[in-house]
Amino acid sequence: MFAYSGWFQTSFVREELVKPERNIPLAVIVSVITVIVGYMLTNVSYYTVLTAADVLVSQAVAVSFARKAFQSLISVIPILVSLSCFGTMNGGIFTFSRTLFVASREGQWPTLFSMIHIQRHTPMPAVLLMFPLVTAMICVGDIYHLLNFFSFSRWLFIGLATLGLIVHRCRYPDILSPFKVSYDSLKSLRNIMLYLFSLALER
To answer: Residue 58 above 60 pLDDT?
Structure first.
């Protein structure tokens, strides 16, 4: 599910978007569909070239696929993986620093983190805070525990946020909202989040 987790990050930068009531749903729909189609085609490619036994014993399926299908391009795979990681990291820094910025502006964090760069108009203190936090988390334990903790906490709070939205809609049904989401969609999303949360607990 980590590959699909970027769909909600556009809402973090709502203030910086043009026509957010149109562009946020459009970006979510287009990006999720693109990722689904891309991953489906990728898996079809894997199983076209590799057998099920090859996939099970492979430590890196993409590398095994490239070794059989594109022998001359095998050295490019690490570069593509690095670019993918860089894009994910860039998106995370861009969006989560805005979360700290807004929390500070609302009085939930120190005022320092609500300041922005004079020329670039970016929340520089919030961005700089993320680096020592990430460094500390990496140094504390191994990468697998960090990934499990990250996935566990992310999907837990997404589930809680979805539940909070349902409660808010029930308590204040007359409040005008630019984004209309049906209750069935919210309940389905909540159930998926709780299921992922339970999987993380089992592991």
So the answer is: yes
